[in-house]
Design brief:
With 171 residues, this protein is mainly beta. The chain has no helices and 16 strands. 31% of the residues are buried.
């Protein structure tokens, strides 16, 4: 069957679709919603990042960010930037207002599957397809800590509410 190239917004009570966000040429693989719920950012199999106005469905900006599919995408905690990781083994960060790339790390053929911003926005937790989980300093692009223990691809992670622990899962 056809792979989904759109995101739908639903009204939970009646189960009614309120809006469709269409713009990717290949599957939408990830998304993030701003804290206020007004902006949506999507990452697709087409390597594009699309910013949306949630209420109107209008496209705010399209960035051809990666050569390969985007696996994960997030707003920074202060929501001034958006970052994405891709099959092309790169981490890229973009200014939300201008769309300009403000950070870039090439992981040399080791694709990053998912990531999370550290609450300070100065670091990022990176999970690559070699089962590695690292804390990377954004300014230097260097790992400051490695978390060893997964024997499979790390599929998800989240920082605890008290910001003292990281939870991670693998397939």
């Amino acid at each position: 069957g056809k792979v989904g190239t759109k995101v739908k917004r639903w009204d939970i009570a009646p189960g009614k679709a309120l809006m469709e966000y269409n713009g990717h040429k290949k599957a939408v693989l990830c998304y993030d919603l701003s804290k206020d719920g007004n902006r949506l950012v999507t990452g697709g199999g087409d390597g594009k990042i699309i910013f949306w106005n949630v209420e109107t469905g209008d496209t705010i900006r399209v960035i051809k960010a990666h050569r390969e599919p985007i696996f994960d995408i997030h707003f920074s905690h202060d929501e001034t930037s958006v970052a994405s990781v891709s099959w092309d083994a790169t981490f890229k960060m973009f200014d939300v207002k201008t769309g300009e790339r403000i950070n870039y790390t090439d992981f040399q053929n080791n694709s990053v599957y998912n990531f999370q911003f550290h609450p300070s926005d100065l670091y990022v937790f990176i999970a690559s397809l070699d089962n590695a989980l690292k804390l990377l300093e954004l300014d230097t692009h260097k790992p400051v800590r490695e978390f060893i223990g997964h024997s499979d691809i790390i599929s998800s992670m989240q920082v605890s509410p008290d910001q003292k622990q990281l939870l991670s899962t693998s397939w």
